[in-house]
Task: structure prediction
Amino acid sequence: MTPGAAASPGILTLTHASVHLGDQLALDDVSVNLDQPRIAVIGSNGSGKSTFARLLGGLVTASAGTVSVHGLDPTRQSTEFRRAVGFIFSNPDAQIIMPTVAEDAAFSLRADRLRKAESAARVTAALERFGLADLADRPAHDLSGGQKQLLALCGALIREPRLVIADEPTAYLDARNSRLIADHLLGDASRQLVLVTHDLALAACCDVAVLFEGGRMIASGHPTEIIGRYESSLAC
Ligand SMILES: Nc1ncnc2c1ncn2[C@@H]1O[C@H](COP(=O)(O)OP(=O)(O)O)[C@@H](O)[C@H]1O
Ligand SMILES: [Mg+2]
Result:
C-alpha cells in the first residue's frame, strides 16, 4: 500500500472468475485479491475492463469461479450488496432518472425509507458537496455534461457506499470537468474505488493498477510499473 494511504477499507477477491457474454468469453479466469483504497483498471478497448467492473458491481454474474466484495457475494446478498456499492458509468444520462436535480438525488435514497425531513436534509448536504445546490430545482436533463456527471456521482455517493466502481467516468468530459470528477473520486480514501480509465495520469494517482488484455488480467502492481508495461505494449 502507498505510504500515507488510508487503512484498507475492504477486500475484493476473484477466484478463477470467468464471464461469458453470449458466445464471447469476456473475462477469462481472473484470480486476484485487491485491498488497496484506489484501484486503477487499464487496457485496450475490448480487453475486459467493463466486464470486470460490472462483475464486481453485481451487474453481470460469473459463469465460472467466485466473486467476493467486502465479504459479500454480489448475487446472493443483493440487498446488502446494493447498499455497499455505488456504480458510475461514462454516460450520466444512463443514471439520471427523475425530472429535477433534487428529485434525482432523493431518488437514490428511496430504499432507505427515511423521513421526509431527513431525506431533504441529506439531499441538501449532498448537492452542496457536489456544487449543485443552486441547481436543485432545475430539470436534470438540462444540465451540462459535467453537471450531469456530478449529479450521477451525487446519486452514487449519497448513501455513502463502501465501494465505488466508476467505468470511464471522465470519458465524455472536458479537462476541467474531468479534474473535478477525478478529485471527488480520488480524494476520499475512506471508501474503496475501482476506476476504469484510459486517462493514464489518473491511473497513476491510484494505489494499484491492473492491466487487462484479451479478457485476462495480465498484470497487477504499482501504477507506474503497470502503466509502463501497457505503454511499452503500445509502442510502434
Ligand atoms: N453484451 C455483450 N455481448 C457479447 N459480447 C460482449 C458484450 N459486451 C462486451 N462484449 C465483448 O466482451 C469483451 C470485453 O468487453 P468489455 O469488458 O466491454 O471491454 P472494455 O471495457 O475493456 O472495452 C469484448 O470482446 C467485447 O466485444
Ligand atoms: Mg469498457
Summary: Residues 116-129 form the longest helix (14 residues). Confidence is low (pLDDT under 50) at residues 1-8. The chain has one domain: 12-234.
